[in-house]
Amino acid sequence: MSGLEPETKRERRARAREERRERETAEAAAALRRTRLAQLGVLAVAAAAVVALLVVLLVNDNSTKSKIKTVAGEAVPGEGYVNALFAGIPEQGLALGNPQAPVTMDEFADLQCPFCRQYSVQALADLVNQYVRPGKVRMVFHSLDFIGNDSHTAALAAQAAGQQNRLWPFIELWYENQGTENSGYVTDAFINKIAQGAGVNVAALTSARRSPPAQTAIDDANALATANNVNSTPSFLLGRSGGKPTPFQPSSLTTGAFTGALNQVISRSGG
After folding, report:
1. N or C: the chain end with fewer CB closer than 10 Å?
2. How do the pLDDT tens digits run along the chain, 271 residues long?
3. How remote is the C-alpha of 88 from its chain's centroid?
4. How many Å separate Cα 43 from the centre of its chain?
5. Measured distance CA(219)–CA(225) in Å, rounded
6. Which residue(s) pair with 265 in the sheet?
7. Which has the closest alpha carbon to 194: 76, 80, 111?
8. Spatial contact of 89 and 132, defined as CB atoms under 8 Å apart
9. How far apart are CA 156 and CA 213, in angstroms?
């Protein structure tokens, strides 16, 4: 006969409860480990995404900066490049290019907008040389004031430069020297520096940007933007000259994102 007493029903229940508690404790610990591992995985993925984004931003920023054409000793960085870019191309008010060009592209932009600068630096020169200079496309600039009070001041200055038929060198040189939005960099001194570099008469610009016609031009630009559901910058309209243009949203702000649409409209327009 064994020396062990048989378990009573109460003892069996107590042992079963203890075993269940041990299993539950082990399962809870395992679940906690799985949760922590999952959280660490999410954090690792998020960290990798942040690093990837920073790399993309850095590459884009560097590629943008690499396209700025400056020469040592210039009074205004980029002035030589800008004036050479537009030399010999007809300008009239807001428009750049041959008035008889078969296609017109309207641009709505804010001079403080960093994305507008990106388009200007990455794509504009190629488009001017490939389409505007040969007389295939006429560009029209509409200066908006979306971002803040400095945007309004900048828009008035651009309109005033347009009264001297020097709007395009003015805005391109502005983008070459653009500061951080709403940082207060848009001062009279900054505007005058850009005007001088772009071949604009400073005294005439100072007077014109405080005149009713400059404000009227901004009001007209805002009204046209509203009529075409423009709610971001830069935005574009594209169409046959003299016809009703349609909104065009490029896939990126690089030259290649514009060429297909421009070639298509030129072909349809007989250009």
Report:
1. N
2. 434 455 554 555 555 556 555 655 555 555 555 544 444 454 444 444 433 333 333 334 433 433 455 555 678 999 999 999 999 999 999 999 999 999 999 999 999 999 999 999 999 999 999 999 999 999 999 999 989 999 999 999 999 999 999 999 999 999 999 999 999 999 999 999 999 999 999 999 999 999 999 999 999 999 999 999 999 999 999 999 999 999 999 999 999 999 999 999 999 987 6
3. 29
4. 30
5. 10
6. none
7. 76
8. yes
9. 9
245: left (phi over 0), alpha (psi -120 to 50) or beta: beta
CA distance 116 to 158: 14
Q: Which two tokens stand for residue 148?
A: 């803040």
Task: Pull the structure tokens for residue 32.
Answer: 């906690």
Measuring CA to CA, how many Å separate 238 from each of 18, 82, 112, 245, 248? 78, 24, 23, 5, 6
Contact indicator for 91, 167 with CB cutoff of 8 Å = yes
Q: Could you state, in order of their start, the residue ranges of all structural domains in the chain?
A: 9-66, 79-268
First-last CA distance in the chain: 112
Integer CA distances (angstroms), 103 to 37, 118, 137, 249, 269, in order: 59, 23, 5, 16, 7
List the Cα angle 67/68/71 in 5-degree steps.
Answer: 130
Taking the alpha carbons of 182, 183, 184, 190 in that order, is the dihedral positive or negative?
negative
| Cα 271 from Cα 102, distance rounded (Å) | 6
116: number of Cβ within 10 Å = 23
Are the CB atoms for 208 and 163 separated by under 8 Å? yes
User: Cβ atoms within 10 A of the Cβ of 220, count?
Assistant: 13
Q: How far apart are CA 7 and CA 127, in angstroms?
A: 93
* Lookup: tokens for 213: 């016609």
Q: Which CATH class is domain 79-268?
A: alpha beta
Select from 168, 157, 222 the least CA-distant residue to 192.
157
